[in-house]
Amino acid sequence: MRRQEQRSLGGRMATRILILTSEYLPVVGGIGTYARELAGAATDLGAEVTVVAPDYGQKADDRLSRFRIVRFAGGRHRARDLLAKIRLVRRLLSNQKYEIIHAVDWPFFIPLRLASPSHGAKCVITLHGTEINELANSYKRSIVNLLKLFDGWAKIVTNSEFTRRLLFERFHVRLPENVVAEPLGVSSFWGEAARARELTRDELGIPKDAMVLLTVGRLTERKGQLIVIEALRLLPQDIAGRCCYLVIGPAYDTSFTDRIREAKARSGLDVRLLGEGSDELVRDVYAASDIFCLVGGPDRSGRVEGFGLVLLEAGAQGLPAIASATGGVPEVVRDGISGVLVPAIDPVKTSEAISALCLNPDWQQQLGTAARKLARELTWGRCAAATYGLP
Q1: Is 50 exceeded by the pLDDT of residue 156?
Q2: pLDDT surpassing 90 at residue 241
Q3: Could you read off the pLDDT of 274-296 as tens digits, one per residue?
Q4: Out of 154, 171, 182, 277, which residue is the most buried by the measure of CB atoms under 10 Å away?
């Protein structure tokens, strides 16, 4: 089928979208998820999407993807990769015309900015939170100012109102009306039927009457795994003895992972580090759990929780959350409605919230029902339509 015929949908020409990302499968991370889900949703809405992503030194099998994926040689972004990305973007734009070009992470802002006068496409850049601090607190700030990265040449999309405010606090933005907060979505996959709760618990050796708490995310201070362990230690023994705390995620920070293992050993509690797992496994564990916990806070490097997508994924399986009232989290967890907000890095308040939910199963169920409803409302289709102006 000729390209022209491929682009025609019911007599209407499909919008060509180019998505540039420095993170993608097989590496698991928030930006890679954002790029993949947004591309899939835009494809479902009739756009013709191409995703440009690193190959991580592997021969990726992208044949089953619903959209085109172009791999470039490289992995996680390093400063020395910038020149190669500039050349890559120039080459891509010289070979193909696009209506929309979207840099979903900051390493592609500069290549897209340098190319922007020549291609005539609508440009979009996305800020997720942490990179605003990263760009503001280093030599990169002078590059932002020199290239006028936030001066109106591109539509700026933030993943939350918190991230939008953070941008205005840290940088002068010439056209603030050009900055749009667009909440992320959650894939329908996370709300689909999981394996029976009892089967997953049996496989993990968890007692049927246990209260299962869960954190999914990289093992870092920002995710708050240590705070949950300390909170469990503060519980009355009759409640703590019923609790089982599951932690799913890669050992991102070796020293922090060692601290978690030490705290686990000292606590004498049922704490289990399950490592990484497939999406199917994670969904099954969501369905087998009772409370989701994300109670960390900004770390010393300036990393923040700009949105908290994992909270929506857990909510899609009906899990109420105990989460820090920090960053964009209060936009995802509605206090007393779909979960409980606590101060960041506060084991005492976290312990009180765990106790309250353990002692009130009806309230726990009510919060979980509301969390599921919110997850159904925040779809990737809504996010893609708003980001790209698709019908």
Answers
A1: yes
A2: yes
A3: 999 999 999 999 999 999 999 99
A4: 154
Q: Is residue 383 part of a domain?
A: no
Residues facing residue 50 across a β-bridge: 18, 68
Mean residue pLDDT across the chain: 93
Last residue of some domain: 138, 163, 182?
182
Residue 281 shares a structural domain with residue 327: yes
Alpha-carbon distance of 212 to 269, in angstroms, equals: 12
C-alpha distances out from residue 259 to 31, 217, 255, Å: 27, 16, 6
**Biggest CA-to-CA distance, the chain:** 69
Q: Which two tokens stand for residue 57?
A: 């030194």
Token pair in block for residue 47: 């756009």
Which pLDDT does position 261 carry in this prediction?
96
Q: Please check whether residue 151 lies inside any domain of the structure.
A: yes
DSSP state, residue 262: H
64, 72 contact by CB (below 8 A): no
Residue 251 token pair: 């050992």
The CA distances from residue 265 to 211, 251, 292, 349, 373, in Å, are: 20, 17, 22, 23, 38
pLDDT of 1 strictly over 60 = no
Same domain, 202 and 120: no
| Domain boundary, last residue among 182, 201, 235 | 182
Q: Note whether 24 and 54 are within 8 A (CB).
A: yes
User: Could you tell me if 351 and 292 are in contact, meaning their C-beta atoms sit under 8 angstroms apart?
Assistant: no
Domain of 115? 3-182
Strands (E), 169-326: 179-181, 211-216, 243-248, 270-275, 291-294, 321-324
Q: Terminus-to-terminus CA distance in the chain, angstroms?
A: 25
DSSP state of 40: H
Total count of domains within the chain: 2
User: 267 and 342 share a domain?
Assistant: yes
DSSP assignment of 98-167 equals -SEEEE-SGGGHHHHHHHHHHH-PEEEEEE-SHHHHHHHTSTHHHHHHHHTTTSSSSEEEESSHHHHHHH
For the segment 12-23, what is each residue's pLDDT rounded down to a tens digit?
689 999 999 999
Task: Look at residue 6 and tell me whether its pLDDT is greater than 70.
Answer: no
Are the CB atoms for 45 and 391 separated by under 8 Å?
Answer: yes
